[in-house]
Specification:
homodimer, 672 residues, alpha+beta, 24% strand
Chain lengths: 672, 672
């Protein structure tokens, strides 16, 4: 036989511990969470034969503090899978692993509970129990009173003067069970691999976004047909109104000088008129490039004034990072190597052959990767220096993915608070890999998931499969996206989409004009007519509000609900429930009491009629355990939309009139 | 900005390459294959934007020989997933990784094919193509004729005297395409991680197993009611008959001395009679333990005689490794620490509380792990020394899993040809982890998958999800398993189960008596009445054959089909097809011509009526591309069961009379 037998090292420990979660690509990338997030940790663990085990999660927070969390079996449908929820409250890198151990006391209890009533092995079974109790009693790390109690148990187990049933009862009494649960006898302790969770600041995962074009706010058409642009000073007047609607983040399209060459006119016309401002995404002119501010918007000082006003209103400002250039961008002269030069000496336009976009030069990262990436890094640092901590990245999927991984990690190494949002609409692998590369948030196909079955699939994927690496920012519209659902769904469609976006996930977004029910598309496109990308679009928000034609009060209600209900600010706590009607979507968000600052569980049930043209009556079947309630219980729910109250149970009649209120947002009152 | 910017290392390369397959637990365990197996290798690979890429698999065989295999995209339902089949022909550790590269020529072709017909950028587009052709032509590693051809292409692309269409045609001609495919222009080359495939000898994954109790063969009841046991000498007479049925492996239940203490009698009776031989799994008596031979079976020399006869018949012999002891086992005296001693000083019996199995002492691996594991290692080495290369392991899930990982790797380090089969019927995680720990084969729940939908799910899981780590040996019965399907399905049930087991996977097994249609169970159990585990069961195979009451000719036909058709000796090449009838199961096994020794593709279609009580008429809808055929084609199939021939296409009528022949096994004749 082998002399060097122990040269074989095993992957498995004494107790197998496999497939830890959260985990991204087998640990290749760290899992993500945001500060304040309640994360399900899971592991597959089992022992040979029938003996019982216990499993703990060992968490190491960024300050080096270690905590231990006991796992429970996840139920008969997932045999050998164990789980526990844990709150990750501080940003930074957390480490976790699992430890499993033979639970000799639980094993003995299970055997004794079968043998004693059957009259089998009475004496020796109690002797075995007594030996375990004695071992626990001898553990000097236990409190004295506990050790005395364990001695008493030992004596009771060995007391042949009492009936076996009484001796078994002594082994089952609550204090002993508590002792053996809290400080179990640990044998065959086995450790799993260690995995990382990168915890980002809360805003990386939680927030209400509002997008607007600063040049439109306060823009005025002069009598001669020319325009006076809105500026950072006029746009700042909008900030308190945005804050009053409850938004947290204001996202601005690019604020840089706009090129003149092949500038696009209204409705993407190939030729712009003299007074057309051009698309903010055609970045760069003689006035400067990505580190400059469009003179029409003001100066750096005006921008800082705007940032200051935002801060006063409790708003963060997110800037756009669109890595492309107008032919007028200074880089074209200073760094032609950052573009693609054709054999005829010209620079290649952006194109989707045979179509060409002559207002845009795409960047080429392969001629001078180091030069270009450090220039981008410099630009990002420039805006960070002015106080920007969030970047919405335009079309990241058209740039090399390892560039983003480098950029985000390099920025976060110095500025861990900086958040990047990926605006990629592409194939699943591309979008998922951008998120794995480090993007803290991502756009998603949410806007095109409108039926009940589409939404059920999307929300399940978002809150489970993606949660460790990909966070969808649920924008209801963007300057590029006006879905058919909004075009043709009427005002109820706007409520439905906003209510789901604001409550299903912890981060959602609205592009200005949504609250005015803007719904007219350029014919044949899922895009706004007279798109703000190419022209000034001043809006009269106040008049709409006064005439009752504004959704702003509804959006305000949604953001207030998010503020009041911590369950709505979590990602992974979504449960789908069943409704008999195929247009009535039901989900709940539940935060157990132990994770709530108030000390009380927070539970919200959303019931949405996703058919904006109809009245639906149906029965909702709730999984009440997912609400943290006991089966069979009745409880009060209050609709955060209307203030109405109902007495609910596992089975409830609902009537949702899309033309009145298409969505119930029901807060569950904890039964006393 | 960061001075030490390049301190950030990225997981992603220039072209992302993620989720390589085959892979087990993110590379924690090596993937498995068997020598001669055709394995699908897959990777997710894509580039930013719209430029095209190519991907190669780089395989390093155990001798250090490197080969390269071009991957293809796996189709629109799996965007960005690439795959290629590769034959792993030698046992040992193979390494693989993927390399991706920007395919500038394919990118240019795709652009030119759009721009030239549209009349856009004619001159510069051909200049770009010419530059690429010139670059290829300058590559001195290319053959001279090829370089000349590339020069000609360059000239043709630049020849403004010809029409653009003609110049584009020059870029599309077959020889150029072949050159640019076989030796592409490679840019931005990126390598994936390296992964391992442990390739075992063919028998680890391919084989027909036959199980029998040697003591039954030639056993004779004496007039006084006592028995004369069969011996290795009498059992050897059965070997040529087993070989004639086409089996490869003979598996023997334990051949060791059997304990007397609490020996079980017929039908698991608690008390055995004087003449009852006892269960071979109650191992150990004063005559010896796991390294000894039961005196009734003969001596070591008799065993070697048996092995010699098996070898002459082309059969391998598999022994049972059942790590447990009768109370009479020598270990009980010499190593009581290998068992569990109770507080009363007795050794613990096997039990399922409150039930006890007093004929068995289970081993305890935690008192003296090193002592016990080296004793097991010694025993395994003992049998290897006598010529055994296959062990069927009894109940491995009741022993620590890391023990098996150690044992198998330690044995295989010295004896890579040794194969272990896990007889574990347990929860999925336990069975899967035993396979990951190293078991080359596993029993499975195949015997209880009898309906069409159950079988479709099982066969898909087996041939795809499990294939890299868990190989199911499809036993149709065992001494422990006589399913209700066989009890009540009549003779057709035996044909159906054998046909599916023999053709769906590359390794299957039969326990002696199956060919005699033995189907009577102990009442209320899925187990044979008068189980051979507890008594002698001599059988008259010859008489059954003579009277037409034997399934042996059918089993022979099945094994001959397996010998003749290499597609049936593969695991991962199974495709399900659709039949309108919910009892008609259809699958095919296809081996492309390039992997067949004959140089011709091998394709077998199995159509099984899994309802043994019925006649079914239905339409079979074939995915003809999965058969390696062109859509719309007609082809001849020959039924290996009856020799009948039909002309088939994508849609075929079938009639399967369970009482005549319930299963078609159709060989596809390649259309010329």
């Amino acid at each position: 036989m082998a002399k060097d037998a122990d040269a074989v090292t095993t992957v498995l420990g004494r107790i197998p511990l496999l497939e830890p979660a959260p985990e991204v690509d087998g640990g290749l990338f760290p899992a993500k969470a945001f500060a304040g997030e309640v994360v399900p940790f899971e592991i597959t663990a089992f022992r040979e034969g029938h003996d019982l085990i216990g499993v703990d999660l060992v968490l190491l927070d960024p300050a080096g503090q270690q905590t231990s969390h006991r796992l429970a079996k996840l139920g008969p449908e997932r045999p050998d899978r164990w789980g526990v929820l844990a709150l990750l409250d501080a940003p930074g890198e957390w480490l976790f692993r699992f430890q499993a151990w033979a639970d000799e006391w639980a094993t003995w209890r299970a055997v004794a509970d079968k043998k004693i009533p059957a009259g089998v092995d009475i004496a020796v079974t109690f002797q075995e129990g007594a030996i375990l109790a004695e071992r626990a009693a001898k553990d000097t790390r236990r409190p004295k009173s506990e050790r005395r109690h364990l001695e008493d148990v030992r004596a009771a187990l060995l007391n042949e003067a009492t009936a076996p049933e009484a001796r078994l009862a002594a082994a089952s009494e609550p204090r002993l069970t508590q002792i053996m649960t809290e400080r179990p006898l640990v044998d065959l302790q086995t450790l799993s691999v260690t995995r990382r969770v990168q915890v980002e600041r809360a805003r990386a995962g939680v927030g209400s976004w509002y997008e607007f074009f600063p040049r439109s706010i306060g823009a005025k058409k002069r009598p001669d047909g020319s325009w006076q642009s809105g500026t950072f000073r006029t746009a700042a007047l909008r900030l308190p109104e945005v804050a009053a609607m409850g938004f947290d983040v204001v996202y601005l399209p690019p604020i840089h000088p706009i090129g003149r060459a092949f500038r696009k006119g209204p409705n993407n016309a190939l030729v712009a008129g003299e007074n057309d401002p051009g698309s903010p995404w055609a970045i760069g002119s003689p006035e400067g490039g990505h580190d400059a501010i469009h003179p029409d918007l003001g100066t750096v000082e005006d921008f800082q004034f705007f940032l200051g006003k935002a801060e006063l209103s409790g708003l963060e400002v997110a800037l756009d990072l669109a890595l492309q250039a107008s032919p007028d961008h200074p880089w074209v002269q200073s760094h032609p190597e950052w573009f693609t030069t054709l054999p005829d000496g010209t620079i290649a336009y952006a194109e989707n052959p045979p179509k060409k976009y002559q207002d845009i030069y795409p960047l080429n990262f392969d001629n001078d990767y180091d030069g270009l990436r450090h220039e981008v890094r410099r630009i990002v640092e420039h805006w960070i220096g002015l106080g920007i901590k969030i970047f919405r990245v335009d079309n990241p999927h058209t740039k090399p993915l390892h560039f983003w991984e480098w950029l985000i990690h390099d920025v976060n190494a110095q500025h861990p608070e900086v958040v990047f949002l990926a605006e990629a609409f592409s194939r699943p692998a591309v979008m998922q890999t951008l998120a794995k590369a480090g993007f803290q948030q991502s756009y998603s196909y949410f806007t095109w998931r409108n039926t009940k079955s589409e939404l059920e699939e999307f929300l399940t994927t978002m809150s489970r499969d993606w949660a460790a690496h990909y966070r969808a920012n649920l924008f209801v519209n963007t300057p590029d996206i006006l879905t058919e659902y909004l075009q043709f769904g009427g005002r109820p469609a706007f409520k439905i989409r906003a209510a789901i976006a604001a409550t299903a996930g912890p981060v959602w977004g609205v592009y200005s004009g949504f609250e005015l029910y803007e719904s007219v598309a350029r014919p044949g496109a899922e895009e706004y007519i007279d798109n703000e990308k190419y022209e000034y679009r001043p809006r009269d928000f106040a008049r709409a509000l006064a005439s009752g034609d504004s959704l702003a009060p509804y959006l305000t209600m949604l953001n207030q609900a998010r503020d009041a209900h911590p369950a709505l600010r979590q990602l992974r706590n979504l449960t789908l429930h069943r409704a008999d009607d195929d247009a009535v979507l039901v989900y709940s968000k539940h935060l157990p009491a132990r994770f709530a600052r108030s000390g009380k569980a927070d539970t919200v049930i959303v019931v949405a009629n996703v058919d904006p043209h109809s009245v639906r009556e149906t029965v909702v079947h709730l999984d009440v355990e997912a609400l943290g309630l006991k089966p069979g219980i009745e409880f009060e729910v209050r609709d955060l939309v209307t203030g109405q109250r109902w007495q609910w149970s596992a089975r409830n009649y609902v009537r949702l009139d899309a033309f009145y209120e298409p969505v119930h947002i029901l807060h569950v009152k904890e039964p006393s």
